[in-house]
Amino acid sequence: MSAATQLKQPSGASDMAHIVLTFDNNQLASALYGQFDENLARVEEKLGVDIRSKGNQLSIQGEAGAAEQARRALDYLYDLLQKGSELGQSDVDGAVRMAIAADDQLTLPTLERKGKLAAAQFSTRKKTIHARSVNQDAYMRALERSELVFGIGPAGTGKTYLAVAYAAMLLERGMVDRIILSRPAVEAGERLGFLPGDMKEKVDPYLRPLYDALYDMMPADKVERAIAADVIEIAPLAFMRGRTLHNAAIILDEAQNTTPMQMKMFLTRMGEGGRMIVTGDPSQIDLPPNTKSGLVEALNVLSDVTGIVTVRFNEKDVVRHPLVAEIVAAYDRAGAGPGPAPRNPKTEQ
What we know:
The protein is α/β, with parallel strands linked by helices.
């Protein structure tokens, strides 16, 4: 647990604040600060506050709003440590993003009573994943309550990773019988026919990101056994034709590279007790020229269908290296970003 004390400011400094945080576990407090106080320095840089550490106490000084945001972020990170998580740079950045967003009336659900951040989370036996941005939080909550969710946005925002985490959690809890992970095997400048090996060996490189996310959520031996028993199936989109998938978590990744016919085929595979997640980035379409994207069409055609939720990510949600967010923003400014938004989309922010 941590305790916060708001100290009075001298007359004329009403817009400034001095907050003292006291932590009850010195070891966790040290982990919170980071090596050479690098985590504290990152919060200082992001929020423009001054943070001083002395044992298990932190002193936060700065503009009142920023100081309160720093308190929320540090309190949230300490809670993660108490739950057994290890902190990385992306966790610190995510906590700051969530703390800033919590000031917006539209994002108050991210706050618990007493001003504590309450980010959505998925837990498997191997790992617990916490939302690191408001849109990630909205996406994770949408996955829990909707049977069909579209996650749309640039690379590095966690669309696929969170979808696989959710599917793994459902499988471990017995809420689905199978996980099916699929991608369209579209050539991005390469020729599939010239790749060596049989069909499985040819398409595996296209599906590798799904394997990587899956192994991050579940022990490797359990994944291998599940794949061998067809409890987890990783297959190109073409293999979905003619099937009805009951009690399954079904993920279609890189959906911007589907044709309209493929997208319709995929969406109509859902059976009773199924959960379907479609992820993609309309700014990175690798289809042949003059070929319409099935994802772009679906977002328009299905915009008024009740029960379908679309969550849109942007460069502020990028949780990879900080340069990735800058790269995405630069391309968007240069006009290489997504095309026109679909008509009246049901979007969660």
